[in-house]
Amino acid sequence: MHFYQGERIALFIDGANLYATSKALGFDVDYKRLLALFRQKAHLVRALYYTALSEDQEYSSIRPLIDWLDYNGFTMVTKPTKEFTDASGRRKVKGNMDIELAVDAMRLADTLDHIVLFSGDGDFRCLVAALQQKGRRVSVVSTLQTQPAMVADELRRQADQFIDLADLEQLIGRDASARGARSSSGGRGGHRDNPYADGVSQEEV
Questions:
Q1: Can you name the CATH fold of 8-201?
Q2: Residue spans of beta strands (DSSP E) within the chain
Q3: What are the extents of the domains in the chain?
Q4: What is the pLDDT of residues 100-123, one digit of tens each?
Q5: pTM attached to this predicted model
Q6: Cα–Cα distance for residue pair 24/22, rounded to 1 Å
């Protein structure tokens, strides 16, 4: 991956999407290492992490992760999920942060040189194009190394640079022994199970 020395960058992380991608690749992201990596590459202005939360998730498996990120250099952007019952009577919970991420990216664009988007969602192609029209470079972080690929082809083609998350595993992956110890102790910052397993889907709200 290529960054110009001194360029101002911001990370926009679609939390559920990044979690699903890293799990599909078989590793957990060490967010402390992730921040350190991009601070080495350029002038990191901000790292924003987006996730939807249900009202009963106050003590869920995602809460320690959110708290840790909030205290360790990330700007957390959250909103409540919406619950509904579908035509077959099944309970559904929807949570989508695409609008919030897009609005923030456009607001911050004038203070940045380079936007790094952690998502493979094809809905972001129009956002990437709009940022490029403002003269900003956009990198997309996702993966082609899964079947099917986690990144939409139209998003990958639109980006100025595509970074495969699989290529970053050795740089930002969490150590397996540390993960095991943290999971067994239930320590701060660890999440033993899928933090998005409480029914949050990537559907339109």
A1: Rossmann fold (3.40.50)
A2: 8-14, 43-53, 75-80, 82-85, 91-94, 114-118, 137-142, 161-164, 200-201
A3: 8-201
A4: 999 999 999 999 999 999 999 999
A5: 0.82
A6: 5
